[in-house]
Write a structure and sequence with these properties.
Elements: H1 4-9, H2 15-30, E1 36-37, H3 49-61, H4 64-68, H5 77-91, E2 100-103, H6 105-117, E3 123-127, H7 134-139, E4 144-148, H8 159-165, E5 170-176, H9 188-205, E6 210-214, E7 237-242, E8 255-259, H10 266-280, H11 287-294, H12 304-320, E9 332-333, H13 342-353, E10 355-356, E11 358-359, E12 369-372, H14 377-393
Parallel strand pairs: 1-10, 3-4, 3-5, 5-6, 6-7
Antiparallel strand pairs: 2-8, 7-8, 9-12, 11-12
């Protein structure tokens, strides 16, 4: 008998994928120029040449048995040490190789981190708007995900609702900054206030509350924006990172989990992640990818295009009358829908104008829509008049 649980999940199709699939169908029927696809967060700039050079050098000069052999369960020791050193130099931390666990992107890091600190009977809190895949990540631990409603005036943390939802069952809080889909970055003031509440609740409840940070957009922060390294401000923290956005490597699935050295039982968490891998079939990223990352650990792709696109699109749409909290990073913005039903608005945009945008309902923030502007600037320039036309149609 097949699993009923996963069978039922097949009927819960991703809204993002629905719009993406519609864009492909429209392009096939009416031509690619009929579609302005702002649905998927796939980096639009190439990897840095230094990464290609590193791959070439490895393939030409290193032992192929080592390059293509199994990675140790807890990751390549040299890669772990390299990541720890980079974090220490950049953020004034004290990581060692034993605190780093290479993973298949941020998704792998989050799945392992959550299993390390949450289980049946526990609650994990997160903040709307949030990445929809948090639901299966948390449910896979046996814990329950509860969502703190958004503060739509700023998309910083809604602390009033957060404190109301805190309870002794909370074992972890999951945050995403810079944020998908809002483009907002949690400020130092926000993180310090969050840390203060968690410290107070740890004492009240008599157990640790871990702060898990989802940080694939860490390097995509715009000029002058206050963007603290969260683990610097709270000891019981686990940082989950991916090189997908910073190096334009989403298809390579390479990231890491970094356990704060000051966390409770810090030395156990990476070995625990290795044991969790036995249940999930994770088995580490490829050896060659880990070794390549060592050679570009502090490099990024040319990310400046995203800030340029953000400024262009924000200024144009704001002038047209859209209500938007200005993005501070990532390659997303999250305008308010001019009509209450954002699904209706987004389907009208897709079917009548070929504008592919995503309703905010799946991010637990109905009445808003996400624009993913990791596209050529020329596409944004051509799409701007369509957004104005769309506004006039509703």
């Amino acid at each position: 008998m097949i699993s009923q649980f996963y069978k039922e999940m097949t009927g819960k199709e991703s809204v993002i994928r629905k719009f993406f699939d519609y864009s492909r169908e429209r392009a096939a029927k009416l031509g690619p120029d009929s579609v302005y696809n702002f649905s998927i967060g796939n980096p639009s700039v190439p990897v840095p040449q230094k990464f290609n050079d590193a791959m070439t050098e490895l393939l030409q000069n290193e032992d192929p048995v080592a390059l293509h052999g199994y990675s140790p369960t807890l990751g390549q020791p040299t890669t772990k040490a390299c990541i720890a050193r980079s974090l220490n130099e950049r953020f004034g931390m004290n990581y060692e190789a034993k605190h780093i666990f290479p993973t298949s992107g941020a998704a792998g890091a989050l799945s392992h981190a959550l299993r390390c600190v949450a289980g049946a009977g526990d609650t994990v809190l997160t903040f709307a708007p949030y990445f929809p895949e948090y639901v299966p990540y948390v449910e896979g631990t046996g814990a329950k995900l509860r969502v703190v409603p958004a503060d739509t005036t700023s998309f910083q943390i809604n602390f009033e609702k957060f404190t109301e939802m805190m309870s002794p069952s909370v074992s972890a809080v999951l945050i995403n900054s810079p944020n998908n889909p809002s483009g907002i970055v949690y400020t130092t003031e926000t993180i310090k206030k969050l840390a203060s509440i968690l410290l107070e609740k740890q004492q009240e409840y008599g157990h640790e509350i871990f702060l898990i940070t989802d940080e694939p957009y860490r390097e995509l922060v715009f000029s002058g924006v206050d963007s603290p390294f969260v683990s610097k401000l709270y000891d019981n923290s686990i940082c989950c990172y991916s090189f997908s956005k910073s190096l334009s490597l989403p298809g390579e699935r390479i990231g890491y989990m970094a356990v704060n050295p000051k966390a409770k039982d810090a030395d156990y968490l990476v070995p625990m992640a290795g044991q969790i891998s036995r249940f999930t079939g994770h088995n580490c990223p490829s050896s060659i990818m880990q070794l390549a990352i060592e050679r570009v650990i502090n490099d990024t792709s040319d990310l400046s295009i995203y800030e340029k696109n953000a400024e262009l699109l924000y200024n144009a749409l704001s002038a047209q009358g859209y209500e938007i909290v200005k993005p501070m990073g990532t390659f997303y913005m999250f305008p308010k829908s001019p009509i209450p039903d954002a699904n209706e608005f987004c389907w009208k945009a897709a079917r009548e104008l070929g504008l592919i945008i995503v309703p905010g309902d799946s991010f637990d923030c109905p009445g808003y829509f996400r624009i993913s502007y990791c596209v050529a600037t020329e596409q944004i320039e051509r799409a701007i008049p369509l957004f104005e036309k769309l506004l006039a149609m509703v």
